[in-house]
Amino acid sequence: MLTLLLLVILTALVFEYINGFHDTANSIATVVATKVLTPTQAVMLAAVTNLIGALWGTAVAKTISSGLVDTGVVDINSQILICALLGGVVWNLVTWYLGLPSSSSHALIGGLCGAALAASHNNWAAIIWSQPDNPFWKGKGVLWKVIFPMFTSPILGFLAGMFIMGLLFAIIAGIAHLGGKFARAMRPRWVNAFFGKAQIFSAGYMGFAHGSNDAQKTMGIIALALVAATSAGTLEHAPSWLHFLNMPSENGGKDMEIPLWIKLTCASVMAAGTAAGGWRIIKTLGHKMVKLDPINGFAAETSGASVILLASSLGIPVSTTHNISSAIIGVGAAKRFSSIKWTVVERMLWAWLLTIPAAGGLSWALVKLLQHFNWAG
User: In terms of C-beta density within 10 A (0-12 exposed, 13-18 middle, 19 or more buried), how is residue 279 classed?
Assistant: First the structure.
């Protein structure tokens, strides 16, 4: 059982690494597309800011570890965590190969729910669907923490991108209207130069937001495995040098504190994955959807990152991909709707909708395969 626990942690870190290079494009596609930074410079900026963001807060990690599936299912059969992670990994690699910016977050959540469903012999009660609190956004369960934000956060990203882009256009037009040196300062060359510098900060902001939400999901998976292993007594006879893995927690892990070593490990692995890059998805986000200038990139990154940080503070595991993509579409719509390549957007929407059921189905099938060979309960 100890070997299984260590395998869960290793698989979780593999997922985190893949998440890093799969979602690198989310924080750097626009800054590369606008030629403000070279791909290498942008990747390093994203890696550093991802690392810092990953150490900021644990609300999302607690949602993953105790707010989506019955932790009792994990106590009974810890293999489901490996299957959950593998389902997410396979789907991430498929969409990465196709250059589709799908959600690693939803791949992990779909995998977790699909594996829990299979491990409980298709008992849908194993998935926590809804436990609303007051106010409603603090409620737990797949409905409030996954499905509801899955539709609302991209809408917020779209509206925020359109609003910020429109606001910037209005400010530039207002200053240019003053005439003289103000009008000269608002020429395209000067505007691009200013927002080229500003976009370095907005790209860093986006990287920080990405780390604050995405890295915490794997932290939650590792914490969930350790709480289950501790309560099952798996670590009682472990070597003394592994005692740091013990995570006693009351109330099903709802009040757990994520240990510093988990935060540092997940943050570092994600940063390493980010440094590996993800150029296929960068091409889709940064070039195929809409032509971007520095001012557009600044507006998209600022609006997308703001929505993600709001979700992180509420413990909501939203999709970084969905938010930056919808923000880019909103920025393009502020210019003119015809500037958006809707065929590319349509492909992305299909990837978004299929991610949870596809990753969930893969994980469900893996658990069933283990059960068939009596390798899982």
Answer: middle
N-term to C-term CA, the chain: 13
Q: Are 96 and 350 in contact (CB under 8 A)?
A: no
Helix pair angle (188-231, 260-276), 10° resolution: 140
Distance CA 370, CA 273 (A): 29
Closest CA to 49 of 32, 30, 27, 34: 27
CB distance 25 to 104 below 8 Å: no
Low-confidence ranges of the chain (pLDDT < 70): 1, 24-27, 67, 71, 74-78, 101, 131-140, 182-185, 249-256, 277-291, 339-341, 344, 376-377
Query: pLDDT of 126-167, one tens digit each?
Result: 888 876 555 555 566 788 888 888 888 889 999 999 999 999
- Tens of pLDDT, residue by residue over 171-203, are 888 888 877 776 666 777 788 888 988 999 998
Alpha-carbon distance 287 to 364, whole Å? 36
Structure tokens at 375: 């390798």
Q: Domain ranges in the chain?
A: 2-372
Question: What is the residue type of 271?
Answer: A
- Cα–Cα dist 42/36, whole Å: 9
Measured in degrees and rounded to the nearest 5, phi and psi for residue 127 equal -100, 130
The rounded distance, in Å, linking the Cα atoms of 360 and 367 is 11
Distance of CA 218 to the CA centre of its chain: 10
CA nearest 19: which of 52, 57, 46?
46
DSSP string, 91-102: HHHHHHHHT---
Closest CA to 362 of 112, 17, 74, 125: 112
CA torsion 249→254→259→265, rounded to 10°? 130
Do the Cβ atoms of 230 and 247 come closer than 8 Å? yes
Handedness of CA 219, 222, 225, 227 (dihedral sign): negative
Q: Name the residue type at position 254.
A: K
pLDDT of residue 360: 94
